[in-house]
Amino acid sequence: TVPGVGIIGLGNMGGALAANLVDAGLAVVAHDALGPERAPEGSTYVASVAEVARRAGVVVFSLPDGKASEQVARELLAAEGRCARHVVDTSTVGVTAARTIGALLGEGGVGYVDAPVSGGPAGARARTLAVMYAGSRDACAEVEPVLAGLSDRRFRVGERPGMAQALKLANNFLSATALAATSEAVAFGRSVGLDLETMLTVLDSASGRNTATSDKFPNHVLTGRYASGFSNSLMTKDVQLYLNAVGEQGGPSWIGAVTAGVWERFADAEPGADFTRIYPFVEGS
Ligand code: NAD
User: Fold this and answer.
1) Same structural domain for residues 139 and 15?
2) What is the distance in angstroms between the CA of the first residue and the CA of the last residue of the chain?
3) Domain that holds residue 224
4) Distance from the CA of 280 to the CA of which of 77, 189, 233, 243 falls in 20 to 30 A?
């Protein structure tokens, strides 16, 4: 039932996801507003969203935010001779945007599976990316071969679009807070003369252990390779979306507000920097 798989957005994450779909043996039609440069070998680049919509039954989005996803969803719906029947949105768009885009596509007869991802471009290529998804049973069944092409780790977490976004925002809030807090704690230790590597070895073996001590610091800070493929502007967007969503639910977001402030400060000072550079930023502040 899937004549071809489309992918729109070939950035850090979309480029890796597109390559996975090709490797899975699917016929991949790819598009990005910036042109064909990052379309993987084995895919067919086309010059518009409309062309993707004409050639693919399922279309994967990997776009910066909800605004971009909504715009592309509208272009897809407007395509003459459209064959696209389902959208799998792997972008982090937030809860409200996922509901809006799901309703918009639904009115046009296109199913929407809200499917944000966690694990970065390297995790994507290793097929260890966590794909959390929400959508109707029928829509999820239709897009299963595409989800399977994206990653080996997939979790259906709900029936309604927006539910997977809520989980993704909770995840990124935790990841953002852990990295910001660890940066502050490590900078403090260094200021009293502790050795960076020694501190990390101990922290990662003690009760302060978290994804910053187990992954971000050893793989990016200690190596000096600040190239995780995830920008501080996208992380700032995610924490802000988390804060908005918690606010809409009427819940407390004491820590969320502090974390959002730290990331905003960093993104304002170094717009577009890799998010792991928050450590040198905090240490130098
Ligand atoms: P990116 O900025 O590297 O790539 C986004 C791509 O979308 C760009 O190539 C851009 O040209 C394209 N684009 C934007 N608007 C478009 C439009 N209207 N039509 C066609 N193409 C358009 O971002 P990324 O890091 O690849 O992230 C993509 C999404 O995945 C974001 O929502 C992000 O929050 C999420 N995400 C990223 C990571 C990561 O580690 N990079 C991890 C998990 C989730």
Assistant:
1) yes
2) 55
3) 165-284
4) 243
> What are the Cα distances from residue 112, in Å, to 9, 70, 78, 120?
17, 12, 16, 23
| DSSP per-residue codes, 183-247 | HHHHHHHHHTT--HHHHHHHHHHSTT--HIIIIIIIIIITT-----S-BHHHHHHHHHHHHHHHH
**Residue that is last in its domain, among 160, 185, 205:** 160
Would you state the pLDDT for residue 239? 98
Ligand 1 binding pocket includes 259 (Cβ within 6 Å) = no
Average pLDDT score over residue span 76-92:
97
Ligand 1 close to Cβ of residue 68 (< 6 A): yes
Q: Give the model's pLDDT for residue 165.
A: 98
Whole-structure pTM over 0.80, yes or no? yes
Domain match, 135 and 115 both: yes
Looking at residue 259, its pLDDT comes to: 98
pLDDT tens for each residue of 234-270: 999 999 999 999 999 999 999 999 999 999 999 999 9
pLDDT at 1 over 60: no
Q: Is 71 close to ligand 1, i.e. is its CB under 6 Å away? A: yes
Structurally, the chain folds into a number of domains equal to 2
Does residue 18 have its Cβ closer than 6 Å to ligand 1?
no
What integer pLDDT is reported at residue 161 of this predicted model?
96
To test ligand 1's pocket by mutation, which of 59, 234, 263 has the most ligand atoms within 8 angstroms of CB?
Answer: 234
CA-to-CA distance for 257 and 178, rounded, in angstroms?
14
pLDDT average, residue stretch 42-67: 98
Q: Is the CB of 274 under 6 A from ligand 1?
A: no
Q: What token pair was written down for 148?
A: 């399977």
Q: Is 92 in the pocket of ligand 1 (CB under 6 A)?
A: yes
Residue nearest to atom 14 of ligand 1 (CA): 63
Ligand 1 atom 40 nearest Cα: 120
The pLDDT of residue 148: 98
Last residue of some domain: 96, 130, 160? 160
